[in-house]
Each structure stands twice: as C-alpha cells, then as structure tokens.
Amino acid sequence: MKRGLQGHYVTISTVGDAVGAFIPNPLPPVPPIEWSSALREKFDQALLALGRLDSVSMLLPDTSLFLYMYVRKEAVLSSMIEGTQSSLSDLLLFEYRHQPGDPLNDVQEVSNYVAALNYGMQRLNEGFPLSLRLLKEIHAVLLSKGRGKACDPGEFRRSQNWIGGTRPQTAAFVPTPPDQIQECMGKLELFLHDLPEKTPVLIKTALAHVQFETIHPFLDGNGRLGRLLITLVLYSQKILKEPLLYLSLYFKTNRKQYYQLLNEVRFAGDWESWLEFFADAIIDTAVQAVNTARQLMNLAASDEQRIKELKRISGSAHLIHKAILERPMASSNWIREKTRLSPATVNACLRELEGIGLLKEVTGKKRNRLYSYVKYIDIMNQGVELP
User: Fold this and answer.
1) Residue 342 is inside which H or E element, if any?
2) Sheet-wide strand order for 329-331
3) Domain ends where: 231, 263, 291?
4) End of a domain among 259, 291, 323?
5) For residues 131 and 137, is the Cβ–Cβ distance under 8 A?
6) Quick one: 270 and 351 in the same domain?
C-alpha cells in the first residue's frame, strides 16, 4: 500500500546548506498494515523458521560454543556494511593480540561490536528493559574505542548528520534534526512497549528497525546498532531463547534492495514491501543458522572419530578438541590452562593434531604459538569473505 510521505520535513541550516530534514510519523503506520494472504503466509513461515532456529539450542551439545563464533561472525558482517575491512580471522587474531600489523581501527570496531552485543544481552538477562537508556549504554560500548570514540558515545547527537553525499545538499537522505531526536526516540520506545497499541513481535521488530534508521539518532554507529536492535527486540520478547538471529549477511547480500525499501517506506509509505523483505530475511537467515549448526556438529563428530585413531594420546587430544571447539583460534598457553594438561602433553598433542590437518599453527613462531581450527572457521566464514 502506498500511504504517501511517512513524516514531514523541516528546513534546517547546517554547514552552510539549507536542507529539509525528515521527521518520521510515530509508529504504528496509518492506515494499518494491509495483510494480504501472501504477506501473512510469509510471516507464518518466518515464525516457523525462528522456532526451528530456537531448537538449535537442543541440537547443540553446548549452545555457548556456537554463540561465541556466531556473534563474532555477525560483528564482522555488520561492520562490513559500514565499510570496515576486517575478516573473522582478523578479529580472532586481534582478540589474542598476536597481530600488531592488523588494520587496527577496523578490527577494533568489530571487537567493539562483540562487546556491545554481549553487554546488551547481559543487561537484558539482568532484567533491565529494552529502553532508550539501554540503547545509549550499548552505543557507548560500541563506540568506546577506535574511530568512533570522538562521536559522543552513548549520547544522542547534538548536530545534524546526513546519509550519502559530501554535503547536506547532495545527501541521499537527511534524518531527524537534533532538537527532535528525544521526542521521536521517546515515541519509538513507547511503541516497543506496545503503546499506543499492542503489536505482534515480528512486525514490531521490522517497523522499529526502519524507524531507528530513519531517525539516525547518533553521530556514528546507527547502522550497526539498528541491526543489533532486531536481535535485542526478539530476545527481550522471548521469541528467541538464545540470541541466534542476525540479519547482516542478508542485508549485505541484498544491500541495494534494502536501502531502496527503506526509502520506499519513508517517501511512499510502502510498509508491506518492507515487511515481505524482512520476513524473507528472517527465513533465509534462520535456515542458514540451523544448517551452520548442523555442519559444525557433523564436523565435531567426524573429528572425534579421527582423534580416536590417535590411540595413545587420544584421551588428551580429546580434551584439546573440546577446548578448541570453545575457542576455534587459541594459544597453546590458553589450551594448557583450559585442559590442565602438562606443557609436554599439550605440545605433543598439538603436533599430532597438526599432522592430521585438524589444527593449523598460524603465527610461524616458536613461542606464543596460536592454533586455528581451520575447518570450523571455514564453516563460519561462509558469507564473510572480504571483497
């Protein structure tokens, strides 16, 4: 349905340009969403896909092992959309401080994303509500180090920003002026808490993401936090028992259509086309996550069999394999601490595991060596390849 412009413009002056900044109408849309049978079926399929994804926690022997890498994959992908050039391996190496030559700002931003996501989940688990205060706290973590630390971490912007173009007059979109952000975000917070009316969670999540991106309340990090908001809403509303849904790969793969649909919502009021795209994103992403979990379980089982054939050291090698499942890139020191095996035993096992191609030493050093569970990381790397 084409509802027309979903807000209004106010003329502002910034960096010498007089431009129209967009103030969106509060949610939910007026008139209400038009539920065709096709759109309703798409959302039914999306809910089923989320149910299957939630069952991953029952399929996996330890969901936290999957989450550790999955969260990092999402951090890399979400940051890639913003132009960051950092791979999953870069991030893992950075976290172990073994790569001083890395493009530090890029990897730091990805590492910040992991920290911000973990912080948000921890606060929700403590019973803190999904609120403007929590979003600001998460933003403060997201921009705590690296390039973003000069962009008022944890604070709504006090100056005008714009999207695309070198100046406001050539911008693709000029979001909400700073003096209107608190009011617009306050109305978004009410919508998240079912005011003025109750909204089904999946629809609420889809609408809230667009509204957040349209307001663009922070100087930097809006894209990353807006994508993170999707997971936060679904997790806080108990649609997901574990934070396993991340749409960045789908948005990255379909970037042109994603931005086009955001504009179709803002300028024509076509919420239905956006909702169809969002449902497709959930279905595709949930199916991929389930497939990834199954691949990892099959890999772990297959490698367990290979380890049994090592005979004499199979017991110790099994402990190392269990540890490396938890951290697919790990130092020999960390492995010793985790397994409580002697240095001599760990080193002997690592040599054997390298020999059968299960692990690969990645530093080329004689001390402070770092081992990669290559096939595990290859599975997680699907879709994360740098351009």
Assistant:
1) none
2) 329-331, 370-372, 360-361
3) 291
4) 291
5) no
6) no
* Omega within 30 of 0 (cis) for the link into 28: yes
Max CA separation in the chain (angstroms) = 76
Domain that holds residue 59: 7-291
Cα(209)–Cα(227) distance, integer angstroms: 7
Task: Say if CB 70 and CB 243 are below 8 A apart.
Answer: no
d(CA 153, CA 149): 6
Same domain, 207 and 331: no
Q: In whole angstroms, give the CA distance from residue 197 to residue 308.
A: 59
> The CATH number of the domain where 89 resides is what?
1.10.3290.10
Tokens in use for 49? 């896909």
**Is residue 297 one of the residues assigned to a domain?**
no
Q: Could you identify the residue written with the tokens 């975000």?
A: 185
Q: Kindly tell me if the per-residue pLDDT of 66 is higher than 90.
A: no
> pTM of the predicted model, to two decimals?
0.89
Q: For residue range 311-367, what is the model confidence (pLDDT) as tens digits?
A: 888 999 999 999 999 889 899 999 999 999 999 999 999 999 999 999 999 888 777
Closest among 297, 311, 319, 325 to 356, alpha carbons compared = 311
Buried b (16+ CB within 10 A) or exposed e, 121-134: bebbeeeeebeeeb
**DSSP per-residue letters across 230-275:** HHHHHHHTTS-SS-----HHHHHHTHHHHHHHHHHHHHH--HHHHH
